[in-house]
Design brief:
The chain is mainly alpha-helical. It has one domain. The chain is built from three helices and no strands.
Length: 99
């Protein structure tokens, strides 16, 4: 049974790691576009941002309903990163007990 579960947990762990970086990329691109460092009208910037945003927004919306922005600061990406990290640590602990 461990032969099936361990690789699946490893895949989920890696996907969560990738999602962590997509969230950080979305936040960084949003900041850079707000400060004029990146031009959102450029096709490459726009397509990368739209792609990342489509991956991140479905999980950010429920968090944003619970924790509204404080002024201009949106804490929901921070909470999402913490939740992803927590889930990764739980998976890592499960994997270490199965080995």
């Amino acid at each position: 049974m461990n032969i099936i579960i361990l690789p699946l947990l490893e895949i989920v762990y890696r996907l969560l790691d990738l999602y962590f970086w997509v969230v950080l990329c979305t936040v960084a691109m949003n900041l850079c576009m707000n400060y004029g460092i990146l031009n959102p009208s450029q096709p490459l910037v726009k397509s990368v941002f739209v792609f990342c945003n489509r991956l991140v927004q479905p999980l950010l919306r429920p968090i944003q309903r619970l924790i509204p922005p404080i002024g201009t600061v949106d804490l929901s990406p921070f909470v999402l990163v913490l939740l992803v990290s927590l889930l990764q640590s739980v998976i890592r602990n499960i994997m270490s007990t199965l080995v």
